[in-house]
Fold this protein.
Amino acid sequence: MLQGLGLSGTAESVYLQMLRDRDAGPDRIAEALGVDEDQVRDALDELSRLMLVEASWAGGAGFRPVSPEIGLAALLAREQAQVAQRNQEIEEGRVALARLVSELQNVRKGPDVEVLETAEEARDRLATLTARCTQQLCTFVPTRATSSRALESSRALSKVLLDRGVRMRTVYLESIRNDQATWDHATWLRNNGAEVRLAATVPVRLQIIDQDHAMVPLANTESGSGAVVMTSPGVVAALMALFSQTWRSATPLGADRRRDDDGLSVQEHELLRLWAKGATDETAGRRLGVSLRTVRRLSSALMERLDAGSRFQAGARALERGWLDPADLS
C-alpha cells in the first residue's frame, strides 16, 4: 500500500503496527508481525530516515510513530518534488538526445561513430553486439507493437543473454497493454529474469551494450531506418544517464497503474504536457504509442474533467489546479 512512496514491505508493516500499538517496543512488534527483531530494528532505521518515526517523548532509545496525516503528507511532498526534478532531467535529456540524433544523420564514419545506412545492416550489427554482451543490455522500445518475427528473434537472443547472466533492462511504452503479443513478450522477459518497466513516452529507440556501445536510429522515423553506433565514452555515458533517468521514473511491469494525487494516469499527465508544448493529436499519438482515436478519447475525458471548451482553456485550468508546472510550457 505504501511501497509506492518508497517504503519497503517490512517498514510499512512495522509502521502500521506502531500506529496500532503505540507503546510496543521492537520485541513486541517482532512478535506481532512474526519477524526477527533485527528486521524490525532495520525497519525502524528506514522509517527514521523517512521521518515517519521520531524519538519517544519518554526518552531512551525508543521510537514513536509520526501521525500519518503529517508524516505521509511530508513523504508524499518529497516524492513529488523528486518526481518533478526527474521529469525535468528527462526532458532536458530528450532535447539533448534529439539534437544529437539530428546531428548524427549527417555524420560520416569515424573512430567513435559507425553509420549503418540500412535497417538490415543495423539488425546485423545489433545482433553481433548483443551476442558479445557479457554484463548489461539497456533498451528503449518507443513503439507500441512489434512484429511477431521480430519478437521471436528477440526472445531467442534474450534467452541466451539471460542464461549467460546478463542483466537486461527494457523500458516499453505504457501502450503495449493494447498489443497482446508485445505485452506477452514483455511478461515473458520479466518472468525469465529481465527487468521491464513502462513509461508514458520513450525518447528514442536505444540500445546500450555493456556501457561501451550505444545504438540509435539514423533517422527520426522507425520504418526502414539505419542506425548509428557510438563508442565515445562521453556520448555513451550521456545516453546511459538518460536511460537511468527514464528508468527511475518508469513503472515496473505488473505494478498497479499509477495515478497521481489529482487522479491523473501517467498517460493523461504526459498528454497534458504534450499539449502545453503545442503537440498535435497525431504527434501526441506517436509519442504515447497510441491510436489517434485513443488520443481523442483521453483528450475528451481531460476536457470534461477540466470543464474546458478549448485546449487553451484546458491548459490554463490545468496550470491553475497544479496539474501542469510552468516548466512544462517551455
